[in-house]
Amino acid sequence: MGNSIRLSVLDQSPVSAGSTPSQALANSIDLARHVDRLGYTRLWYSEHHATDLLACAAPEILIARAAAETTRIRVGSGGIMLPHYSAFKVAEVFRTLNAMFPGRIDLGVGRAPGGGQLEAYALRRVRTGPVPDDFLQQLAELRAFLHPERFPADHPFANLRFSPDAPGAPDVWLLGSSPWSSVIAAQEGLPYAFAHFFSPVATREAIEYYQRNFQPSPDRAAPEATLAIGVICADTDEEAQRLYASVRLLQCRIRIDDRRPVAAPDDALQELNIIAPSPLEDFPGMAEVGEWPRYFVGTPDRVAAQLRRLAEQLHLNEIVVNTITHSHEARRHSYSLLAEAMQIAK
């Protein structure tokens, strides 16, 4: 597969200790301009609620700003948590984005809550009775709202006026971190992105099931899969591992529902020596039982070789990279080093 692998970016707008959410959002826009110049294929923003750790509660707003600040990179959601919202409203938002930035907008959708139980309750469309399990209906309506010609003539929504009425539509992706999502993506004929950095256990199972069982649809004639993986590159392995300490601590904290901002590497190492002096496999719940780790960490040549092997083994043409560091400059540098090592086209 060689150098034909496309690289993309998942940005969660991490907030660094000692900084602010406003600065994290400004960093995200700066990173958008940076990876656009470097030649990355797409840039996605995630949706997380009620956390001090990540500032990306409204990806559609970041998409609009980032697309305006860039020239060629595709910009989208990774993803919109569809069960919280009206499919019609989501369609209108992304129809608007597509009208403003035609041919550059991706709409990744998922069904995870993006927060805890209280946040999920606050986001609920209806707060009486059980939570409706209508994701597949929502997904079908969303796709039809983006392509109204797909509604049967006798469907009530066939008479809706869709605005803005502009040519084309955003590209819909299904996102997930379990085999369930791969089943739905294959069944519905949608492109599929697996969140390996979040849950590495079922990566091969999910990707291979999707590829084997894909059913062509108006959205895709053939399967298109990718996965999102954590990456930290630095000039030396030692420096990359030092930067990675911030993520190791972040992962430990999340396991106990501690979502403070990203710690500086030296502070992270000090705290890790107290709560997890051994490798993370010895920390409750942190064992890496997947075939590949959540994060590839090291020099750019080392990481590039790992990414190429991963792409070859899973028959992927694109990999989405998620990088979290305390220093924004270190994050920028990591993406620069990786782009050069992978020889992605500018």
Describe what this molecule looks like in 3D:
This protein has a single domain (8-230, 314-335), classed as Alpha-Beta Barrel (TIM Barrel). Helix content is 41%, strand content 15%. It is built from 11 helices and 9 strands. The chain has helices at residues 21-38, 59-69, 87-100, 117-123, 135-146, 179-188, 203-213, 237-255, 265-275, 300-314, 328-342; strands at 6-11, 42-45, 74-81, 105-110, 171-176, 192-194, 225-233, 295-298, 318-322. Strand 2 (42-45), helix 2 and strand 3 (74-81) form a beta-alpha-beta unit.
Question: What is the gist of this entry?
Answer:
The chain has 346 residues and is α/β, with parallel strands linked by helices. 41% of the residues lie in helices and 15% in strands.
Which tags fit this structure?
TIM Barrel; alpha/beta; 15% strand; 346 residues; 8-stranded parallel β-barrel
Write the layout of secondary structure elements.
Elements: E1 6-11, H1 21-38, E2 42-45, H2 59-69, E3 74-81, H3 87-100, E4 105-110, H4 117-123, H5 135-146, E5 171-176, H6 179-188, E6 192-194, H7 203-213, E7 225-233, H8 237-255, H9 265-275, E8 295-298, H10 300-314, E9 318-322, H11 328-342
Parallel strand pairs: 1-2, 1-9, 2-3, 3-4, 4-5, 5-6, 6-7, 7-8, 7-9
